[in-house]
Amino acid sequence: MTTFAAVMMNLLTQHDTASAIFILALVIASGLYLGKFKVKGISLGTTWILFMGILLGHLGLRLNPVMLSFIKDFGLILFVFAIGLQVGPGFFHSFRKDGLSMNMLAVALVLLAVVTTYIIHIISGENLGIMTGIMSGAVTNTPGLGAAQQTLSDATMASAEVADAASGIASAYAVAYPMGVLGAIAVLLLSKWLFKVNLEKEKELASSSDDEEGNAFRLACKVENPALFGKTVHDIVGDENADHLVITRMMRGSKVFFPDLDLPLKEGDKLLIITDVQHKDKVRIIFGEDYPVDMDEWRPTGTELVSRRLSVTHNSITGKSLRKLDIRRKYGVTVARILRAGVDLQADADLILQVGDSLKVVGSEDGIARLAKLVGNEPESLHKPNLIPIFMGIALGVVLGMVPIHFPSMPQPLKLGLAGGPLIVAILLGHFGPKLRITTYTALSANLMIREIGISLFMAAVGLGAGKTFVSSLVGGGYMWVLYGAVITLLPMIVVALVARYMFKMDFFKVCGLLSGGTTDPALLSFSEQLFGSGRIAVNYATVYPLTMFLRVVAAQVLIMIML
Questions:
Q1: Distance between CA 158 and CA 424 in Å, rounded?
Q2: What is the DSSP letter of 253?
Q3: 410 with 431, same domain?
Q4: How far apart are CA 554 and CA 85, in angstroms?
Q5: What pTM does this model have?
Q6: Is the same domain home to 101 and 35?
Q7: Can you tell me the mean pLDDT for 347-351?
Q8: Residue 295 domain flag
Q9: Which of 349, 434, 472, 542 yields a CA-CA distance of 20 to 30 A from 10?
Q10: The domain boundary residue, chosen from 382, 404, 423
């Protein structure tokens, strides 16, 4: 027992590698355990690691400063790089169509938070670095905290000053974070009351856009043109017509089947054709007059509906929407749900697909098999680790983060730092990698593992560093940080919610997704989905999340640069 006590004492007091690993593991394990507990369905999750680090740091546990700095920076890099790889494939596509207005509102949400933070700084006289930490906590954005601390470490200040400023920012973040979670939930509940939302009517309004068939036009024709006899489907359709004319089924006698492209047509064959409104007259000229479509008549002979999971593994599918692929009409298959990065998404017609998506489909065995060839469906290829792009990407991200960006009005150049640089490189790799034949996809479990390890190391290191001064900061006026954080949380969200609803006429589920993604708050996403029961919220969350995450990181750096 004496030996065990001596070992424990050494681990808690020595500043060597074994001591650092033991303390970090203790902080992370205890924080993750506390994160499992929920109050009315709400949990602070991994933020408990930060609070446990602050507690143990306050009680006197210390790590070697150099080792603590390395752990914090490396954990941050792993975290933001995993996020970048996840959001990269859909980053640029999120600016199209309806996503453009949503992203502009998300930009407004970020700018309003920055402006509110700066105004409070001017009025109250509170240190702008502290206000940056409050802002990051108020919008529950951990990478913003990391970016602020990294920018400080790059500044031309004494190491002691940097350490004190960084711990103050972390303390402010920790104080403001709980109100950031609760305040965001309060805004959603207030919005539901203020907008007098009837959830059933909102669901009808939201689903009406899903049921629109756009310009698609379905017709059935009988082959009576002698010029077509003996011609194959490919001969008739051709590459030039492939985008606006698809023969989805053929009826020969009493047999209904999916036509092979090389199958010669015979007189009397009946074809079920999908075209667009602009080309329907052209189709009638080629095949002859159409007749009413009865889909029961066109059910493939002897087929039964089955349910399957298909994995998108072909790079060519990335960037295409369900509407453009027109899966239901071309293959007789319905996409019911889409699993992406752990989020179960509704199969919205305008949802952009990307490599790694898992499609839950319902249809005939033959139709599903044909769809599987289109999307790839080779899940084993997604499970292979691709470490070279990851570590090369991190190396490039560090280089990019250290490149100085000069602005005339700033006393020293801006750097993207160890948060912004790897994040940008990861987004670019995630988007352009497949097009350049660079395999950047990481399995969901691998991505989550990298991300969770990274954020856990970062939170533990930040907490241990901030614990020394946390209580003294709180007693010495830090209680006002809660009020400042509440204003930064509530004011921008309320303004953007009102604009989205009354100016852009967005349905309530879009507003919920916009606010959840605009605050990069997965807890708010989970809460709103459970309370309001709509998978569309996650679709809209994913639309604005990538740009918002990037802007939150840059905004924190800009505020620190202004302070310096």
A1: 29
A2: T
A3: yes
A4: 18
A5: 0.61
A6: yes
A7: 67
A8: no
A9: 472
A10: 382
Q: Which tokens is 53 given?
A: 């680090």
Contacts of residue 386, Cβ cutoff 8 Å, sequence gap at least 6: 439, 440, 441, 442
CATH code: domain of residue 257? 3.30.70.1450
Residues 370 and 392 in one domain: no
Element counts in the chain: helices (H) and strands (E): 22, 9
Residue 59 has a pLDDT of 82
Q: Which neighbouring-strand residues pair with 42? A: 39
Percent of all residues in the chain with a pLDDT value above 70, rounded to a whole number? 72
What's the pLDDT score for residue 231? 84
Q: Would you state the pLDDT for residue 142?
A: 73
* Tokens encoding 209: 């856009």
pLDDT of residue 200 exceeding 80, the answer is no
Domain-terminating residue out of 327, 353, 382: 382
- Backbone phi and psi for residue 97, each to the nearest 5 degrees, phi listed first: 50, -125
The pLDDT of 183-187, averaged and rounded, is 85
Are 32 and 155 in the same domain?
Answer: yes
369 lies in the same domain as 437: no
Is there a contact between 312 and 356 (Cβ–Cβ < 8 Å)? Answer: yes
Relative to beta strand 255-257, strand 245-252 is antiparallel
Rounded CA separation 488/371 (Å): 48
Residue 239's pLDDT is 46
Which carries the bigger pLDDT value, residue 187 or residue 198? Answer: 187
Tell me the pLDDT tens digit for each residue of 46-92: 778 877 888 888 787 778 778 887 888 888 788 778 877 776 766 66
Asked if residue 477 is part of any domain, the answer here is yes
Residue 241 inside a domain? The answer is yes
> Which structural domain, as residue segments, surrounds residue 377?
306-382
Structural tokens at position 111: 């700018």
pLDDT of residue 91: 64
pLDDT band for 214, please (50, 70, 90 cuts).
Answer: very low
SS3 letters for 25-56? HHHHHHHHHHHCCCECCECCCCHHHHHHHHHH
With 0-12 CB in 10 A as exposed, 13-18 as middle and 19+ as buried, what is 141? buried
Tokens 């009025």 belong to residue: 123
Q: What are phi and psi of 275, to 5 degrees?
A: -140, -170
Q: Which of 98-107, 144-153, 398-407 is predicted with the least confidence, judged by mean pLDDT?
A: 144-153
> Alpha-carbon dihedral of residues 95, 203, 505, 499, nearest 10 degrees?
-80
On whether residue 14 sits in a domain, the answer given is: yes
Pairwise CA distance, residues 301 & 116, whole Å: 65
* Nearest C-alpha neighbor of 493 from the set 522, 524, 467, 469: 524
**Is 268 in the same domain as 402?**
no
Rounded to the nearest 5°, which phi and psi values hold at 534? -140, 125
Closest CA to 368 of 335, 344, 346: 335
**283 shares its domain with 315:** no
